Amino acid sequence: MMALPRPARISASALLDLWEQGEAYHSLDQALLVLERAYPAITREELAAYSIGRRDRLLLQVHCNLFGDRIDGCVACPSCGTKLEFGLSCSALAEPRGDDHPVKRTVQCGGGEWEVRPPNSRDLAAVANQPDVQIARQMLLARCVASVVPAQEQTSALPPDTQRVLEAELATLDPHAEVFIDLSCQACAHSWQTLFDIASFLWSEIRTKARRLLQEVDVLARAYGWTQHDILTLSPTRRSWYVQMALS
Ligand SMILES: [Zn+2]
Fold it and tell me: What is the 79 CA–ligand 1 centroid distance (Å)?
């Protein structure tokens, strides 16, 4: 099993550029933009063709590099509405759970032999504007069927049983594509599972960090007359001390 490539360091200035460029993008494109910056040796075409599980493992590594291993999340209890905090570890979430680079699998079901591959960013983009979830799932699955013997009509929806089997196969082929976390509410004892999406979580962390950097630039430029470039090239520790002194 091949190890994942290591992400490059993203400087404070590069993080601001990243946020500025991607803020208005769709979440799928934000994820690809982050990966392009963090893995400059991999082309955007290659990144877009990675399975979502592989994409998300790379994003977890980027989170680890930029913000540390720990993820602090917050969610409202669906039963009583109490705010609940939870902690996750990027390295634990990114641990290999099967094939590191899932490509294809052959599945026998519904009287046919199906060759399926896990969905990638292009597949998700192709169905992103479909408002009907059931139709979107069928479209996604159709894209992920590389071949079927005997040949079936492309346009007809698959029988529900076949669809279920193929979707289950895809979930085991690319187990990192959907990460569910178990939560339970201290206030009302309700337990449930929630889907954790590293792509949107990481982007919101990038947004928060970018806004904080802009505030720091604002404070230090006013206090000391330094340029944005000077301020962003300070180490985070030094920048934070100067901000404290400027505000005291
Ligand atoms: Zn509750």
Answer: 5
